[in-house]
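Checklist before submission:
- one chain only
- standard amino acids only
- sequence pasted in full

Submission:
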Amino acid sequence: MRRTLIAGNWKMNGSFAANRSLLSEIVAGLPVSSDCDVLVCAPAPYLTQCAELLTASLVKWGAQDVSEHAQGAFTGEVAASMLVDCGCRYVIVGHSERRAYHAESNAVVARKTLRALSENLIPIVCVGETLAQRESGQTEEVVAAQLQAVLDVVDVAQITQLVVAYEPVWAIGTGKTATPQMAQDVHAFLRQQIALKDVAAAASVQILYGGSMKPENAKDLLAMADIDGGLIGGAALKSADFLAIAAAA
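Returned file contents:
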């Protein structure tokens, strides 16, 4: 059985004071034991604060991006080893905003995935199509190419260390929504693509939904066979909403 993972992506939000309040509320609101894993992915300057506040809790923490390089003259970049120093266990790679605003190609995302794996970080590999791509019937072609770039550079053992997140770009902050069945169809397709490389690995990989999961739709989405959790944006910044999604899991 795949465990459910509820991962909050704070994006470029937060402050030391706001984070302390949010994290204390999340920790206090979670049950002592849970059937799901809970994760927050904070901006890099706040990762040590996460370590301070979450080490004794059930909440894990991770980063939103990682350099493809191990170290060196790459001003502004953050190395995977630095994230490990901050106690991170996870890192998001290839988020749609990185692909769109920083021109990250499938090849770059693949290299970042390998770098994360080299430091025993769990990469949350994001894939997803735009509205234009969906409306032109390219969804499977686009997400297959994004995922395949990663599958081409990892071995079977490494596949089991991946998390995949499907984020339909057209359903994030647009007012448009994917139905649970629409999301399930893409999740099932992604699992089929992984199975082409290894069936057992495909059965174990967590595939998260990242298309504006909220308390109102979390239960129906998480009931789908191939949806193993959520990559949560805006709702992750409100403790009540984030806890409600975790409770739905």
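Reviewer check: The chain has a mean pLDDT of 96.
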